Each structure stands twice: as structure tokens, then as C-alpha cells.
Amino acid sequence: METKNASKVNFTLKSDKSSYDFTILENNKELTLKIEDLKEFPIKIYELKIEFEKLKQIDDNFFMFKTSERFINAIKSCIQSENYSISIDKEENAAIFLMKNDFFDNGGAKIKIPEKEQDLKSQVEALTKIVSEMKNERKKLEIEKDEAAVKSFQNTSFLKDDEKKLIVNGFILIKLSDSICFLTQI
């Protein structure tokens, strides 16, 4: 019997309310569909492990895919062309991923992915991931602020870059203290 290597694809899904990490893992005809809600803490994780043939029974629209690779490529195409929707059904504790395409009956094919119970370890890992992303975002913002400070004094040759940054940071602190004083007067 031939054993196939596992393949994994990741996407970022956006909705009006949140953004989600969407991972599809294929391993020996079994699919794992995993959605992580990035705006919630603890992060909500929705996961469905299912054989490709059983997935076809969930929605008749999936019978058009002969292989799981074609199915994954169809999801990828729907996401890239933004022909999908993602919603959370709080009553059923599930994420609903809808692939939109005119080929499907009723214009779409749904996959309901149930919420996964999480242990303390996975919640700590999720928090660690969030903190790491926040640190990276903070560093990026600091770099952008410093670059803006240097550019704001572009034609002043008597100031060094570090002095330009200090001046701009001083103005920010003065504005903050003025705002605080104004608020305390109200």
C-alpha cells in the first residue's frame, strides 16, 4: 500500500467581525480543517478531522471533486478570489465555511467545523502566539515612528538622527501631558 506524504496549506480568512487562520492538512486521505479565531482570547479553535470520502457525504456539492487535492485547490481558488464566507454559529459551537461558486447547487458548499475543546497547554500556546505577534507589531510601529521622525527634519543638517527622534518623542510626550491636563480640568 502506497503511503502519501502529508500536505498542509494555510490561509487568512477575513469577515466583518474577525480574522481567522485557516489550515488544511491532508494525510493519507484524511483531511483536517482547522480555523483559529484570532480576535478572541482564549483563541477559539474549530477543527474537523474527516476522510475525504465522508466529507463528500456532508454536502452533495463535494461529489464533483475526484480527489482531495482538487478539493483543496478549489478552496484555495475561492479564498484567493474572495468567493467565500466565514461565520460562527454560537448555538452549534461551530465555524461555517462557505465556498461560493456558480457550479455549486444554491451557489455554495458549506463545511461546518465544530469548536475544539482546549486544554490549558493549548491556551498558553495561543497566548504566547498573541504576545509574540504584538511584540512584532510594536517593533514595526516603533521603526515607522522613528523613520517618520527623521523624515520630518529632512533638511536640517545641524541635528543628528537620534536628536530628531528625541525631539519628536518629546513633542509626543508634551501632547500627551497636555491632553491629560485638559482631561483633568474637565
What does this structure look like?
This protein has helices at 52-58, 68-80, 120-152, 161-185; strands spanning 7-14, 19-27, 30-37, 44-51, 84-89, 94-100, 108-114. By secondary structure, the chain is of the alpha+beta class. The protein folds into 2 domains: 7-117, Spindle assembly abnormal protein 6, N-terminal domain (Dna Repair Protein Xrcc4, Chain: A, domain 1); 121-185. The strands form 2 sheets. It has a 4-stranded antiparallel sheet with strand order 1-2-3-4. The longest helix is centred in the last third of the chain and has 33 residues, at 120-152. The mean pLDDT is 78.
Fold topology:
Elements: E1 7-14, E2 19-27, E3 30-37, E4 44-51, H1 52-58, H2 68-80, E5 84-89, E6 94-100, E7 108-114, H3 120-152, H4 161-185
Antiparallel strand pairs: 1-2, 2-3, 3-4, 5-6, 6-7
Helix pairs in contact: 3-4
- What is the CATH topology of the largest domain? Dna Repair Protein Xrcc4, Chain: A, domain 1
Strand order of the largest sheet: 1-2-3-4
Strand content: 25-35%
Query: Helical residue percent?
Result: 40-55%
User: What does the overall shape look like?
Assistant: elongated
Q: Kindly, what is the distance between the CA atoms of the first and last residues, rounded to a whole number of angstroms?
A: 77 Å
CATH superfamily of the largest domain: Spindle assembly abnormal protein 6, N-terminal domain
Q: CATH architecture of the largest domain, please?
A: Beta Complex
Note poorly predicted spans.
none
What is the count of structural domains? 2
Provide the residue-averaged pLDDT: 78
Strand and helix order: EEEEHHEEEHH
Number of helices: 4
> Tell me, what is the CATH class of the largest domain?
Mainly Beta
- What profile does the largest beta sheet have? 4 strands, antiparallel
| C-alpha-based Rg, rounded | 24 Å
Q: SS-based structural class? A: alpha+beta
